[in-house]
Amino acid sequence: MDKADQTVPTHAQVAQGAAAPRRGVGRDALVGGICGAVVVLMVGASYAAVPFYNWFCRATGFNGTTQVATHAPSGAPLARRMAVRFDANVAGGLPWKFEPEKTEIEVAIGEVVTVYYTVTNQSARTTMAQAAYNVTPLTSGSYFQKINCFCFTEQTMAPGETREMPVVFYVDPAITADPENDSLKTITLSYTFYPIRDAAKPVAAGEPDKPRGNL
């Protein structure tokens, strides 16, 4: 090959060739950073969705979520009456016997009522559990007002221990102004206890629920 045909690269061309891989690495880092940020945002959104959904249910009574009242209704109970049924369930793996003392009562709308559930730890070891709840039909959730209950409070039961757990509630008179509930005659309050694995954690098990806003 003729030496005259050989092209000697300039300093600018050498610098440009060296910068190309660096630009490629920079683009890869940028894309990787964006993907990582998107993943973090998606994970954060999934965690935030749970408390937001719970707040929405508490605020609206959606999905049968009851409300927590800080005091009894100011007016006298109404003449209209409502049957309230009580349901008790225990999730798998929890050796507890859980049942309402009465399966159904009739109450006047606006009447404050106290009912009791009984729970027994049938195992030979200390166990912990926590109750979740809802009411049906779902449209009645925003009118079922609980003044006191054991829901969402960790309960620690010694081997063979039996305990009575009260629920104080009333049906809000505002339900009579809701056309969706004109023909409603029965509300069912349902609890399910779920096991908590860490039984060594100390819990003030016998304390009643303190209202913390709508549940």
Descriptive overview:
The chain has two domains: about 10-60; about 65-195, Ctag/Cox11 (Pfam 04442) (Sandwich), CATH 2.60.370. It is built from one helix and ten strands; from the N terminus they run αββββββββββ. It is of the alpha+beta class and about 220 residues long.
CATH superfamily of the largest domain: Ctag/Cox11
- What is the number of helices? 1
Helix-and-strand structural type: alpha+beta
- Per DSSP E runs of 2 or more residues, the count of β-strands stands at 10
CA-to-CA gap between the ends? 88 Å
Radius of gyration equals 31 Å
Question: Class of the largest domain, according to the CATH hierarchy?
Answer: Mainly Beta
Shape: flat
Record the SSE blueprint.
Blueprint: H1 11-60, E1 67-68, E2 81-90, E3 96-100, E4 104-108, E5 113-121, E6 127-136, E7 144-148, E8 155-157, E9 162-171, E10 186-196
Parallel strand pairs: 1-7, 2-10
Antiparallel strand pairs: 2-4, 3-5, 5-9, 6-8, 6-10, 7-9
Protein traits:
215 residues, alpha+beta, Ctag/Cox11 (Pfam 04442), 2 domains, 5-stranded mixed sheet, 10 strands, flat, disordered C terminus
What is the gist of this entry?
Helix content is 23%, strand content 33%. The protein contains 1 helix and 10 strands.
